[in-house]
Design a protein that fits this description.
The chain is α/β, with parallel strands linked by helices. 20% of the residues lie in helices and 25% in strands.
């Protein structure tokens, strides 16, 4: 199955992508490669294989863990634990693309550096079958405890939660291409394990199903498999019959020019996960986080809506880029829970007022530190009503211009002593809704309003 490595500064990104595209085209016709099944890449930083059962692994190094539990498809397990891991840490399962590996996913994304900042643990499953694609098509993969890749991933998660006393309510999955497809599968098979997922260039749970042992489903990849929302939802629910508990939230990313897993799969995933969540397929909000992106949210308007979908105009299968992992963490709710001291809930108060005219408005915002410690550097997040866009401002910088906006202090007002306040404001255009912003967070923590 074609794949998508995307590397940060550790490797030149564009040259790797061009080489991958050339190398992967033959996989559409034949997914079985001739590479030895056990030839997984070695970690690029320090590793200490074989530490399972011996307690915690070395900090701040990609480490292979062996003998982690039931592993019917011979996956390999790589782990990154930051030096500043938090008590009862969250766990992010980062799943690689076809022809990739756990170390490739480590090198090609920013989850380890974000873990350093926020204190969670990153788990990188790695395929050893010749195609280096995850099994998202066999009957075994598409049911809970079925005996394929999802079982091995679940064993890895169990090892991490035992060893680090991790928070079982904060386990997340994200993946690219084949890893995005596996993210859909994991959330269907184990809805009681995952709190949320984020899939980059994937397909719905069950879309790639085959009965002939093939890893490739041309109808699904070509975007010709369409079902009703209920039919898709029933497929996901059928992986764990009888389960009636909460279902994981889902974030979906897709490029309109994807020529490997065609763009209709984006809409089919939205159908599936809105149905699984029991929310309407009509967006509750639509915005443009940056040029060429259209973000729709379903069942809620905030950063943790039940379903969030981002469509990238004119972008192909090689979708993932730096900065997207931070948006994933925002959706997961992990970008404000790290080891650095943060204001506690209720330790801030925000008052906002608006003066509007025909198509414009000015807003004045006052942020008060109601806690007992000084705030050194602040980012105030808030949600603009639909149709509003920031056109200018004072006392802060604003990004993006609409939707979920973050106001960041400027050089002269970054310190707020206990009991002190800082005021700033902005101009915005509007299309009829001139209401004040809402849902304020200071450095990721909710603020009182009023």
């Amino acid at each position: 199955m074609p794949a998508t490595p995307h590397l940060r500064s550790r490797r030149p990104l564009r040259s790797v992508l061009l080489a991958l595209v050339a190398a992967l085209l033959p996989l559409v016709a034949a997914t079985a490669l001739t590479a030895p099944a056990a030839a997984a890449d070695e970690p690029t930083r320090g590793s200490a294989p074989g530490l399972a059962g011996k307690g915690a692994v070395p900090a701040a190094a990609l480490t292979e863990v062996t003998n982690f539990g039931t592993n019917p498809s011979n996956l390999r397990m790589y782990l990154y634990v930051p030096e500043s891991v938090t008590p009862k840490p969250a766990v992010v399962v980062a799943v690689h693309w076809c022809t990739g590996s756990g170390p490739d996913m480590y090198n090609g994304t920013e989850y380890d550096t974000l873990a350093d900042r926020y204190g969670f643990i990153v788990l990188y499953p790695s395929v050893t079958r010749s195609s280096k694609c995850f099994d998202v098509s066999s009957p075994q993969a598409l049911r809970r405890g079925g005996g394929s890749d999802p079982v091995g991933v679940k064993s890895m998660i169990d090892w991490v939660t035992r060893t680090y006393d991790a928070d079982t309510g904060r386990v997340f999955a994200t993946g690219i291409s084949s890893g995005a497809m596996m993210t859909n599968v994991l959330l269907g098979d184990y809805p009681d394990v995952f709190a949320a997922g984020a899939a980059f260039s994937g397909v719905p749970f069950g879309c790639f199903a085959t009965t002939d042992g093939s890893e490739w489903n041309s109808a699904c990849s070509g975007g010709t498999v369409t079902r009703t929302a209920k039919e898709w939802g029933d497929l996901a629910r059928g992986a764990y019959p009888g389960y009636t508990g909460p279902r994981p939230r889902m974030q979906i990313w897709h490029g309109t020019e994807d020529d490997v897993l065609r763009y209709p799969n984006f809409g089919e995933q939205i159908k599936q996960w809105t149905n699984v969540q029991g929310v309407s397929q009509t967006p509750t909000s639509t915005d443009t986080p940056q040029s060429g992106w259209t973000r729709t949210r379903y069942g809620g308007t905030g950063d943790r809506a039940p379903v969030e979908a981002i469509s990238l105009q004119g972008v192909g299968h090689n979708l993932y880029a730096q900065g997207m992992a931070s948006r994933v963490l925002t959706f997961f709710g992990l970008d404000g829970s790290g080891p650095a001291p943060q204001p506690q809930p209720g330790a801030c108060r925000v008052r906002a007022s608006v003066n509007a005219w025909n198509t414009g408005l000015t807003a004045s915002v006052t942020l008060t530190n109601t806690g007992t410690t000084t705030v050194n550097g602040w980012k105030l997040g808030f949600t603009l009503p639909a149709g509003q866009a920031v056109t200018g401002g004072w006392g802060a910088t604003y990004t993006p211009s609409s939707g979920s906006v973050t106001a960041t202090n400027v050089s002269y007002n970054g310190t707020i002593a206990p009991g002190a306040s800082v005021s700033f404001g902005y101009q915005a255009s509007h299309t009829g809704n001139s209401a004040a912003p809402a849902a304020f967070t200071l450095n990721g923590t909710a603020c009182a309003a009023g």
